[in-house]
Amino acid sequence: MLKKELRLKYKKLRKELTSEEIQDMSLNIANNCLSLPVWDKTYFHLFLSIEEQREVNTEYLLQILSGRDKEIIISKSQFGPTNEETGWQTRKMIHFLLTDNTKIQKNEYNIPEPVDGIEVPSNKIDVVFVPLLAYDKKGHRVGYGKGFYDGFLSECKEEVIKIGLSCFDPEEAISDVRENDIALDFCVTPYGIFEFK
């Protein structure tokens, strides 16, 4: 299936989940993350869930990470000017260390973000939990199509571990994967872990 079709399909599937189902699935996903081979790492990048998009609630995972004294990094999206030649808007993520003093606000897209804080370079991050709408059996993912995570992941070190979180199983294949799309290493669902080689 094409990314465009998958976006529509999974937005619809998500809408059909009750808040209670999302909470239960999110808790199971967080517990399943305990089986990942990542707990010797230090710097973990976590997305803060967009409730309105019915994303996996990462609050449970956040509690596990802080309980294990991990350095937690969260991001702020920057929408830059549009390139006249390509028509593309420059989009970047700035990463901040999550501390007790971090002030979080929702942006215009309802994404909870840090206002400011201690900046962390992308190449320092060991593990990235990646939001997604769909993914396939090779670890290719479909996001919201804004390109934030593709840009961010391309700045990370080569050995960074990329982990998707999803309430659903993988699709057989995404038919319009691009060369610069960065695949996941794992995807964690309420029912187990998919590993991609």
From TrEMBL:
This is 5-formyltetrahydrofolate cyclo-ligase. InterPro entries: FTHF_cligase, FTHF_cligase-like_sf, NagB/RpiA_transferase-like. GO terms for biological process: folic acid-containing compound biosynthetic process; tetrahydrofolate interconversion. Belongs to the 5-formyltetrahydrofolate cyclo-ligase family. PANTHER family: ATPASE INHIBITOR/5-FORMYLTETRAHYDROFOLATE CYCLO-LIGASE, CHROMOSOME UNDETERMINED SCAFFOLD_24, WHOLE GENOME SHOTGUN SEQUENCE. One of its GO terms (molecular function) is metal ion binding. It catalyses: (6S)-5-formyl-5,6,7,8-tetrahydrofolate + ATP = (6R)-5,10-methenyltetrahydrofolate + ADP + phosphate. The keyword Ligase applies. Its cofactor is Mg(2+). Its EC number is 6.3.3.2. ATP binds at K3, K4, E5, L6, R7, R141, V142, G143, Y144, G145, K146, G147, F148, Y149. Keywords: ATP-binding, Ligase, Magnesium, Metal-binding, Nucleotide-binding. Substrate binds at I50, E55. The keyword Repeat does not apply.
